[in-house]
Amino acid sequence: MLQPPLPEEAAKITELLATAKTVAVVGLSSKPYRASFGVAEDLQESGYRIIPVNPNEKEVLGEKSYARIEDVPEKIDIVDIFRRSE
Hints:
Blueprint: H1 7-19, E1 22-26, H2 35-45, E2 49-53, E3 59-60, E4 63-64, E5 78-81
Parallel strand pairs: 1-2, 1-5
Antiparallel strand pairs: 3-4
């Protein structure tokens, strides 16, 4: 069972989310029914720049996709990872 973050941790998380501008979304799919797409779309609509990282995609949500996180040529503030459960 997940425990809520301690006040110090919550403050750090809040600060990170308030100052971050760029989120790399590893495993982002162009299929609208996938969770990764919905989360990335919400992040984008909230003002974050999303960078898709998926070797099977060329572009998602109007952003160029990269095969590997190491290939992204700009600063990334947050990495959001989507993986299959298996």
